[in-house]
Amino acid sequence: MKNINKLLLGMIFLMAILPMVSAQESFGTFKQNECVNLIQTCSNCTYINITNIAYPNSSIALSNVEMTADGTLFNYSFCNTSIIGTYFVNGIGDLDGINSVWNYVFDITYTGDALTAQQSYIYIGGLIFLVLLILGISILINKLPSNDSVDEEGSILQINQLKHLREVLWIVIWGLGLAIMFIISNLSLAYLSSPMMGNLFFVIWQMMFYVTIIGVPIYIIWIIYKLFRDAEMKRMLERGIDMRGTP
Fold it and tell me: How far is Cα 165 from Cα 170, in angstroms, rounded to an integer?
């Protein structure tokens, strides 16, 4: 319960600080491992150079390169975009004979799409909803009976079919956990500058998926077996046979 509360607080805090993050003037967002055309427009510049381009980890990708002029358009194609994150571009040009510096950023993501504040709210809100849904189902499971109705001596009075609903709901919780891990792993791979956490979450999701395709069918067969066993026990109780159960 404490871990779930901490997770919810963390998500709410992230939603609160997202609007506070100001964006520097940007060339845009581009797809990983594809070339980015860096374009500047100047009507009276004789040259525009890029002094340096820095990777998201602040290491320098290149320095002191001349942009190609085509009339008033200056262009440079940058292709070293294997690292996900924000790249920083600094340059200099002669505007009216005066050297003027400029700086821009561009973002590289796995899909080439920018993660907007609205999308962040949707993702975080969806994850919060799934976590709350798991919490609600867990509370419901604790309120459902786990055994048949028995008397003080331990004899079964009535077969309680609701105990099987608990087992079905555990499958639902497992499926929701699988969905949460899938979402987190894909968001991490798509938007985090380092793939380390994304790869970790994806490996966890793969392990859960393999457990699911093997374990869930076996678990369902076990539930069906218990249903048939309860039906047989019910017939025996109707014949007056004393059956012992777990209180």
Answer: 9
Question: Do 174 and 212 meet the contact criterion of CB atoms below 8 Å apart?
Answer: yes
Long-range CB contacts for residues 157-161, cutoff 8 Å, separation at least 24: 158/237, 159/230, 159/233, 159/234, 159/237, 161/227, 161/230
Q: Does domain 23-109 have CATH number 2.60.40.1220?
A: yes
Q: Per-domain residue ranges for the chain?
A: 23-109, 145-238
180 phi and psi angles, rounded to 5 deg: -60, -45
CA 148 remoteness from chain centre: 41
Confidence of residue 22 (pLDDT cuts 50, 70, 90): very low
Strand partners, 86: 107
Confidence of residue 156 (pLDDT cuts 50, 70, 90): low
Counting Cα atoms < 13 Å in the Cβ hemisphere of 91 gives 22
